[in-house]
Design brief:
The chain has about 200 residues and is of the alpha+beta class. About 35% of the residues lie in helices and about 20% in strands.
Length: about 200
């Protein structure tokens, strides 16, 4: 009987999000790492679960959406006990990718991965609710939020605009405070001058 091959991965504590999947050995580019398994659910049920988990994630900060788009009729809900691949975290500089092969999802290495490196892939979240999904990947290319790679240039523009708007608001607030301080000083000086004049007259 052939000896069962040990997996190239193992689960450990992660600085990105509690638990993560790490390379147990060196992994070559293009190597199949693990299948992302789960429950096959109709689109309507999938959308319902996504909304429920998304609302929960916004309150708790936990990443609770494990659903993959599978085909026109079904999605794959990976939030099951027999799916260790659900612990693979998102990164803005991912080293793996999820590929749909005849309605089965497999995780492949996008590049050579060294032993002990954490495995990651692009979650592909929509930009619409980016504020609900902060990213903690720590990559130099991190945009601060979990969004699909194709949307990151757009997100950078949004964040730049938002930052500029916040800076302008802070500047106006500072100017208003300075103006108020100057007006208060002028009033105090005027009162002091009037008091001095009154004292001189008496």
């Amino acid at each position: 009987m052939a000896k069962k091959k040990k997996p190239v991965w193992e689960l450990r504590g992660s600085s990105i999000h509690n638990q993560g999947m790490f390379a147990r050995v060196d992994i070559k580019e293009g190597e199949k790492i693990i299948e992302y398994v789960g429950e096959l659910v109709p689109k309507a049920e999938s959308e319902k679960r996504c909304l429920e988990w998304d609302a929960k994630a916004r309150k708790s900060g936990e990443g609770l959406v494990y659903i993959f788009d599978l085909n026109e009729e079904y999605d794959l809900d990976g939030n099951t006990d027999n799916n260790p691949a659900k612990y693979i975290n998102h990164s803005c500089e991912e080293n793996c990718e999820a590929i749909n092969e005849e309605d089965r999802i497999f995780i492949y290495a996008k590049q050579d991965i060294k032993k002990d490196d954490e495995l990651s892939f692009d979650y592909g979240y929509s930009i619409e609710c980016f504020l609900d999904h902060p990213c903690r990947c720590g990559s130099e290319k991190c945009v601060g939020y979990i969004v699909a790679k194709c949307d990151r240039p757009k997100l950078k523009k949004i964040l730049k605009k938002k930052k500029a708007k916040a800076a302008e608001k802070a500047k106006k607030k500072k100017q208003a405070a300075k103006k108020k301080k100057s007006a208060k000083k002028a009033k105090t000086d005027k009162q002091a001058k009037a008091a001095k004049k009154k004292k001189k007259q008496s």
